[in-house]
Design a protein that fits this description.
alpha/beta, about 525 residues, eight-stranded mixed β-sheet, seven-stranded mixed β-sheet, about 35% helix, FAD/NAD(P)-binding domain
Length: about 525
């Protein structure tokens, strides 16, 4: 069955990126059609509702300073934000002991503190050498791209405590293990989110806020705005293009014709689409080398926010080897109702704990929380919700695609490069907050403007556009103490200590010699 008429642009994928592309093109007067495989829009944003939770975001949820596009889109559709709770202490749980702290990173033993400070300063410094939108052009691109984060850690980390935290830092930010991902990619990923402090912080960072009523509201609102231009349950199976147009076919054999296509589905899933003519060699190979991360997002509900009553905000970094949860945040609603803790089961731990039943995961998480927050009440939740993103056929995983060693320097330039009439969106192609809702919108609007340029409607210099700073959610600089700016690395400290001891020994020997010579 063919569509009744040809449109200007077909968008494949009804997540935030595809919806943002379709909205911009529609607003510019073009005829658009969006094909979504699922029975809903939103992609990796997914809000459920029931009487136990009111609403809960089982997918992407957090927004913060410098994420100006998602804030603009939320404001346009009258979706409010509220702050993630961080009034009380944060917790680092390590070796069965909870350590309370304030700020982005915990306070550790002296040597571990030196190690941690050096590591994160070094990562930010190295990231500054990388061209943000073209990381493959970095001076040390080849060297860093062929090194895993594990190999980098092996070279620069000296203490076990710092190593455990650093491993968790990779797990929680990109949902893979340090031995899986490229150093160049991870540094560039952090750089695109504003640095180590910005991406990891709650207050003044990537997890500062949530959307009242849930994040999927934004996608639902765009879909409602576009009306019958959005078709659900249309999984695309083939794309055929020629000099004049593009024909897109779904798995039911329904055909739709357009002048251009925006491909906004996850990159790894595009390998399931038959392209005619065949994709260029590098694009074809690229699709075989870009897996998704793995995460199970969980929520335990209680009759009271017991962690707050004990002086803890609900944010925790759990560094126990083999722990089911790696990171938690408070998930109490803006009005104080439905007290809950959100926890991520990340990377390899997700692979392992997927094998348990839902009830077994719930019970293990509850037992862990009772220890982390030193509260027996947390061992007895009143409700549990979870979302295993690895089982999602039309996502393949979450939060985002992982780039393995060697990918960026060979295939990086191909990620956004159009193939004749096909243009590429998706959060993985973003240059700001890639992997987040912000990155999805940036990528969708950029792909839409590439088509507008191709049609002669805008200039080339208008494709990439900066977003004005949000009038309410403004970033603040992260202040470093004099000690943080100038403290040495562990080997630097040991060398200095060794030199000092050597000087003391020389002085003592000289004193002894002079004393005995005088005698």
């Amino acid at each position: 069955m063919a569509s009744s008429k040809q449109v200007d642009v077909i968008v494949v994928g009804g997540g935030l990126s595809g919806l943002s592309a379709a909205k911009l093109l529609h607003d510019q007067g073009l005829s658009v059609l969006l094909l979504e495989a699922r029975d809903r829009v939103g992609g990796r944003t997914f809000t459920i509702r029931n009487d136990k939770v009111d609403y809960v975001d089982l997918g992407g949820a957090y927004v913060g300073p410098t994420q100006n596009r998602i804030l603009r889109m939320a404001r346009e559709f009258n979706v409010k934000t509220f702050l993630t709770n961080e009034k009380e202490d944060l917790v680092m749980y390590d070796k069965g002991v909870s350590h309370k702290f304030r700020g982005a990173f915990p306070k550790l033993s002296f040597l571990a503190q030196l190690d941690m400070n050096n590591l994160f300063r070094l990562m930010d410094k190295m990231a500054d050498e990388i061209p943000v939108s073209e990381p493959w052009k970095a001076p040390k691109a080849r060297e860093w791209d062929t090194m895993t984060m594990k190999a980098f850690y092996d070279k620069v980390i000296w203490t076990k405590t710092c190593r455990r935290f650093a491993d968790m830092f990779v797990n929680v930010n990109v949902t893979v293990e340090p031995y899986e991902c490229s150093l160049l990619w991870f540094l560039n990923y952090i750089q695109r989110c504003g640095g180590t402090n910005r991406i990891f912080s709650t207050t003044n960072g990537g997890q500062e806020r949530k959307l009242v009523g849930g994040s999927q509201q934004v996608s639902n609102a765009i879909a409602k705005y576009l009306g019958d231009k959005v078709l659900l349950e249309h999984p695309v199976s083939a794309v055929t293009q020629n000099d004049k147009d593009v024909v897109v076919r779904d798995i039911q054999g329904r055909e739709f014709k357009a002048n251009y296509v925006v491909m906004a589905s996850p990159v790894s899933l595009q390998n399931q689409i038959h392209f005619t003519p065949a994709l260029p060699s590098l694009r074809n190979q690229l699709l075989q080398r870009i897996p998704m991360g793995t995460v199970i997002k969980t929520f335990l509900y209680y009759d009271r926010a017991y962690w707050r009553e004990k002086g803890m905000c609900g944010s925790s970094a759990i560094m126990e080897h083999g722990s089911i949860i790696g990171f938690t945040l408070d998930d109490v609603k803006a009005d104080g109702s439905h007290p809950a803790l959100m926890g991520f089961i990340l990377a390899t731990q997700a692979h392992h704990y997927i094998k348990l039943t839902r009830e077994q995961r719930r019970d293990r998480i509850a037992k862990l929380y009772s220890k982390v927050f030193d509260c027996e009440h947390l061992a007895h939740p009143i409700h549990y919700e979870e979302k295993n993103w690895a089982e999602e056929q039309y996502s393949g995983g979450c939060y985002t695609a992982m780039l393995p060693p060697g990918f960026l320097t060979v295939f990086g330039e191909e990620l956004r490069k159009p193939v004749d009439r096909i243009f590429f969106a998706g959060t993985e192609t973003a240059t700001q907050w890639a992997g987040y809702m912000e990155g999805a919108i940036q990528a969708g609007e950029r792909a839409a403007r590439e088509i507008l340029h191709k049609m002669g409607k805008i200039g080339k210099d208008e494709i990439w556009q900066d977003e004005p700073e949000d009038p309410e959610v403004k970033p603040r600089p992260f202040k470093e103490t004099f000690f943080e700016r100038h403290m040495p690395s562990v080997p630097g400290f040991l060398r200095a200590s060794g030199f000092s001891l050597a000087m003391i020994a020389v002085a003592a020997a000289a004193y002894w010699y002079l004393q005995h010579k005088t005698d």
